[in-house]
Design brief:
The complex is a heterodimer. Chain A is an alpha/beta fold. Chain A has 3 domains: 208 residues, Rossmann fold, CATH 3.40.50.970; 104 residues, Rossmann fold; 181 residues, Rossmann fold. In chain A, α1 packs across α2 and α17 runs parallel beside α18. In chain A, the strands form 4 sheets. Chain A has a 6-stranded mixed β-sheet with strand order 2-3-4-6-5-11, with helices on both faces. A 5-stranded mixed β-sheet of chain A has the order 8-10-9-12-13, with helices on both faces. The longest helix of chain A has 18 residues. Chain B is of the alpha/beta class. Chain B has one domain: 3-Layer(aba) Sandwich (Pyruvate-ferredoxin Oxidoreductase, domain 3). Chain B has 8 helices and 6 strands. In chain B, α1 crosses α6. The radius of gyration of chain B is 16 Å and the shape is globular. Classes of the chains: A alpha/beta, B alpha/beta. The interface between A and B is large, with 53 and 52 residues. The complex binds thiamine diphosphate and iron/sulfur cluster. Iron/sulfur cluster binds next to loops of chain A. Chain A: Catalyzes the ferredoxin-dependent oxidative decarboxylation of arylpyruvates.
Chain lengths: 537, 199
């Protein structure tokens, strides 16, 4: 029987079956289940595949590169904005190249279901000049993994594998193949390509640029890119990744009307595109994310009217695609539908009952009355909901770690009583370096670390901060007199307000650690945390 | 044969258990299945839905197109109405009567039910009440699945087997409770949804 797997799980199983030796990742919706699946897999445990979470996406990608350096197959997994954090190593390992196969899996979130933006990772792949694979179905997500690792080893480059929310979080029955063994250790013969001093880097960069033709040839001959020309020359469609499914949903058995180029591998197969372009009067480009293929077509052919897509307005410029949007772009008839009745009101997400963040916000809101309501800089995690009613505590949410550094910049500019609110996991992800900046200048800011012993937003994964926050802060140079701990409970409200008031009076760096476990942690998880803290002491 | 089902509710209410029963039963009948779900921010008490598609032929889109759902099965009445644009003309609405109120502007319940009753094919079940009587309000989702089962093109046998399989790690009592909830739900909707089954 087939196994019923999420797109993310299919991909994860595909990587195990392709001889994976290690996955490195930091959680982030919609990518999280990939790593979690391998962590829970008995087979992966038997095979001793590395699965522990990393502190952030940059450290994860560097570790994956280290594993590849030794000759093993490694994978690094993140959500789209995680690639911004890892972009330094990402761009440079394209120049050095890899040794064992290395696949960078990035899950994009068009329509921003759980994200700050809808950036399209294919741009990064193009920027780094490496191959990009974009599966269109769960089965393809499984099947593509072995090809991705083979391709990576063949061209000696990392391969970018792009997922999108709807594929990541949808299940289908999957057929699995036989498993390939892991690579043996096989160190690179010549290590100079990994030492990117200018003299080596120039050579490597020329080599990277010269691989372009090979990569285009791979795309041209790949099974993932298929061209079917129809006798009817009216409409040609380029359907990228998941868009192919929405297309097929609409045209069903009516294949004879359209010429279709399915794209799941980049750089674009230029000959196939030219063949389609010559054959058809009109080309519609369907792609999830930014109009990147559409733009490239304009560059190739320099003729605007014939090419339709998100730029021409035939498809919406922003947001994810769906079968209705694609059907409309094809001019297909759609039944009228009932509207959502006006009695229906929105139901936004909210903090759980018994969440410590709520009591912390109540404490901060008390002093906001005294210091003004623009002084609280926020960060990313469950506590980001503090930017919405009923709390309205937090003013900003930009990227992980920005609360501390934005508060510092505001204090530098003369803001009194700047407060940063940051979660424990976000703090270890990207807050520690910013705190050192503030300590270095003894900036007058109050940093509140809301420590719930979990990476709660993404499903209560283990936080690398557990049991370490005090020592980290002291080690970074926070003065012991201004490192405080509070327990955000209703009964401690007055006491906690006093602590905050006092620290705001201090014109230097204060850190208040607000400790209360997330209610979503299971009993087992709490036991593990307790044991870890005991082992540290 | 192709059946499109939208499951709806509030994050944390357990619609994915219903989805898992449908998935398991469909696979055991060797059918194709696609089932999308919501992970992430909305799972914190926000509106969530799952698209379940079952067919004897390959399914492409993970999302059900608007106007093509044969059934909207909701564990909460307002969340049922949120997905009305997806309903087929002669599609069915099945919902628990019990509201989940976690917002300050939850609509007037009478008005809510008036809207649901406007639609000819609706079944409103006191699923939470029934589940409580059986022994655990959490089994409301199985009551609802039972109530909708005549509209779902999977055999009772494979649905029951799927429930047993999904709860196999739980106690004998929990398995029995969920099976009873399913059977009770089926009884409640008897006579109403048979209409659909006979078509
Ligand atoms: C660069 C980047 N990586 C990952 C994420 C996804 N993400 C958002 S919040 C969060 C976890 C935050 O954990 P913590 O700071 O402990 O707050 P909590 O949710 O536990 O309150 C993650 C992983 C992101 N938005 N950006
Ligand atoms: S999951 Fe945990 S941190 Fe997030 S809102 Fe719920 S209790 Fe708070």
């Amino acid at each position: 029987m087939k196994s019923l797997l999420l797109g993310n799980e299919a991909l994860a199983q595909g990587s195990i079956d392709a001889g994976l030796s290690g996955v490195y990742a930091y959680p982030g919706t919609p990518s999280t289940e990939i790593t979690e699946y391998i962590q829970k897999s008995k087979l992966a445990q038997e095979l001793k595949i590395h699965t522990t979470w990393s502190v952030n996406e940059k450290t994860a990608m560097e570790a994956a590169l280290g594993m590849s350096y030794v000759g093993k197959r490694s994978m690094v997994v993140m959500k789209h904005v995680g690639l911004n954090v890892a972009s330094d190593v990402f761009m440079n390992m394209a120049v050095s190249g890899i040794n064992g196969g290395l696949v960078v899996v990035v899950a994009d979130d068009p329509s921003m279901h759980s994200s700050q933006n809808e950036q399209d990772s294919r741009f990064y792949g193009k920027f780094a000049m490496i191959p990009i694979l974009e599966p269109s179905s769960q089965q393809e997500a499984y099947d593509v993994m072995s090809y991705a690792f083979d391709l990576s080893e063949d061209v000696k480059l990392p391969v970018l594998l792009r997922m999108v929310t709807r594929l990541s979080h949808s299940r289908a029955g999957i057929k699995v193949k036989q498993r390939r063994d892991q690579n043996e250790i096989d160190l690179p013969r010549d290590t100079s390509r990994f030492a990117l001093l200018p003299s080596n880097a120039r050579k490597q960069f020329d080599l990277l640029v010269s691989k372009k033709d090979t990569l285009v040839h791979c795309s041209e001959t790949s099974n993932l890119n298929s061209l079917r020309l129809s006798e009817n020359r009216n409409t040609g469609i380029i359907a990228c990744g998941l868009a192919y499914n929405y297309l097929m949903e609409n045209i069903g058995e009516d294949l004879s009307f359209y010429s279709i180029l399915k794209i799941s591998q980049y750089p674009l197969p230029k000959e196939k595109i030219q063949a389609l372009y010559r054959h058809c009067d009109k080309i519609i480009v369907m792609e999830e994310g930014y109009p990147i293929v559409e733009e490239l077509l304009h560059n190739y052919f320099d003729e605007n009217d014939k090419i339709k897509g998100r730029l021409s307005g035939d498809l919406p410029r922003t947001g994810e695609l769906n079968p209705n949007i694609v059907g409309r772009a094809l001019g297909l008839f759609q039944n009228s539908t009932e509207p959502v009745p006006s009695v229906v009101t929105p139901r936004p997400p909210q903090l759980c009952d018994g969440c410590g963040h709520t009591d912390l916000f109540n404490t901060i809101n008390e002093v906001i009355r005294e210091i003004g309501d623009k002084n609280v800089f926020g960060d990313i995690g469950c506590y980001a909901l503090g930017a919405l009613p009923p709390m309205n505590t937090v003013n900003t949410l930009i990227d992980m770690g920005a609360s501390i550094t934005m508060a510092k910049g505001a204090a530098d500019a003369g803001m009194d009583n700047a407060i940063a609110v940051i979660g424990d996991s976000t703090f270890t992800h990207s807050g520690m370096t910013g705190l050192l900046d503030a300590v270095y200048e003894n900036s007058p800011i109050t940093v509140i670390i809301s420590d719930n012993s979990a990476v709660a937003m993404t499903g209560a994964q283990e936080s690398t901060a557990v049991g370490r926050l005090h020592k980290i802060c002291l080690g970074l140079g926070v003065h012991p007199d201004h490192l405080k701990t509070i327990v955000p409970l209703k009964k401690n409200h007055d006491e906690n307000v006093e602590v905050l008031r006092n620290e705001l009076k201090y014109k230097g760096v204060s850190v208040i650690i607000s400790e209360r476990p997330c209610v979503r942690l299971s009993r087992d998880q709490k036991e593990v945390i307790k044991a870890k803290i005991a082992a540290l002491n | 044969m192709k059946t499109n089902i939208i499951l709806s509710g509030v994050g944390g209410q357990g619609i994915l258990t219903i989805a898992a029963v449908l998935d398991t039963a469909a696979l055991s009948e060797d059918l194709f299945i696609k089932q999308s779900e919501v992970h992430g921010m909305s799972q914190r008490g926000g509106a969530v839905q799952s698209h379940v598609r079952i067919s004897d032929k390959e399914i492409f889109s993970d999302l059900i197109p608007e106007g093509q759902a044969d059934l909207i099965l909701s564990v909460e009445p307002m969340e049922l109405l949120r997905y009305m644009p997806f309903l087929k003309k002669d599609g069915w609405l099945v919902t628990d009567s019990e509201s989940f109120i976690n917002t300050s502007n939850y609509p007037d319940k009478k008005e809510l039910f008036n809207q649901i009753k406007k639609h000819p094919n609706h079944v409103i079940v006191d699923a939470t009440e029934i589940a409580k009587k059986i022994g655990n309000s959490k089994a409301a989702n199985m009551v609802l699945l039972g109530a909708a089962s005549a509209i779902i093109p999977l055999s009772e046998d494979s649905l029951v087997k799927a429930i047993k399989e999904l709860f196999q790690h739980k106690s004998e009592r929990i398995i029995k409770l969920n099976l009873e909830a399913f059977a009770e739900g089926k009884k409640v909707a008897e006579g109403i949804t048979d209409l659909a089954a006979s078509k």
